TrEMBL record:
GO molecular function, one term: mismatched DNA binding
Keyword Transit peptide carried by entry: no
Start and end residues of each DNA mismatch repair protein S5 domain: 212-349
A biological process term (GO) from this entry: mismatch repair
UniProt similarity note: Belongs to the DNA mismatch repair MutL/HexB family.
Name of this protein: DNA mismatch repair protein MutL
Residues of the full protein shown: 1 to 361 of 789
Function, in words: This protein is involved in the repair of mismatches in DNA. It is required for dam-dependent methyl-directed DNA mismatch repair. May act as a 'molecular matchmaker', a protein that promotes the formation of a stable complex between two or more DNA-binding proteins in an ATP-dependent manner without itself being part of a final effector complex.
Keywords: DNA damage, DNA repair, Endonuclease, Hydrolase, Nuclease
Amino acid sequence: MEPPDIERLDERTVQRIAAGEVVERPASVVKELIENSLDAGASRVAVSVEAGGTEGIRVRDDGVGIPADQLEAAVAEHATSKIGDIEDLDRGVATLGFRGEALYTVGAVSRLTVRSRPPDADAGAEITVDGGNVGDVRPAGCPEGTTVEVEDLFYNTPAREKFLKRTATEFDRVNAVVTGYALANPGVAVSLEHDGRETFATEGNGDLRSAVLAVYGREVAESMIDVEWTPAGDGAGADGAAGDSAEADAPVGRVAGLVSHPETTRSTRDYLSTYVNGRYVTASALREATLNAYGGQLAPDRYPFAVLFVEVPSGDVDVNVHPRKLEVRFDEESAVRSAVETAVEDALLDHGLIRSTAPRG
Ligand code: ADP
Ligand code: MG
């Protein structure tokens, strides 16, 4: 057999392959758009999807907006208002996005419209990208803030389109993402609509329990107990060494949030939401530590609800291991595990929901 020629892929093909890495499915698009809205300082984020997001996704916010003369840049490759250079990246990024690739890649694999009006502008404007073809900026009537619409995701990438699951499954994932951000940001009114029907809407009043009530309903909200743990509170009595400096050096600064009564459970782990330094993450270490804290109090194959915020020094966590930035890696994984387990255990013990085990070291 003759060796085949090696040829450089054309730009459009490269663009679509790269897009598949960032936007895998409707839920990943929704994640990127919500993050943009939060980065824009929105106090309301309204998400609405059709057919699980495969036919349409719309995210509307009341954030700072995008001036008309910046719309083209917003949908361009590697264009971001969030970092200037590699030094900014090394200093640590406060915003959720920074790669400047989300709108660009979504525009490559769908029909994307970005419509925006900054609060001080008298008129709005919009730009459309259709399968990577960027249209002209046009005037558009719109409220203050930004609306991003994505239609026919993957219509020009049939291989990716085939990979999508049933509408209901895609919607479940969208729901999980929107729920994740709604709970992480109780001060933002987040709503979700599927095929014209409201799934949930949080009030945005800053209260975590009220956000849980909106998302999971009254029974779950009422079963939730408070978790609040800091290293000073934990070790002070035992060794008397906990002070400001010990706390500043601690591998875990704080674990806080809500966990459910051991009898308020579901059959999947999907209701264990974890956040590291305010970012919604999937970290099996955090889930396992939470479950361990329940000891033998959970029925077989039943999982509790949890909304847990873990704070670690920003240098100790790598949130950048994947472009989708969901999985995290900890430098001090065992310390993080034990802090989370202790935090949840203490809360459950306080409420007499588990029995005290051997003293912890
Ligand atoms: P990134 O978020 O990594 O900067 P994106 O492609 O997601 O990259 O967005 C590109 C730029 O478009 C952002 O840096 C921001 O300036 C602007 N932008 C995107 N979405 C919004 C929004 N909802 N409100 C205000 N500005 C936005
Ligand atoms: Mg972004």
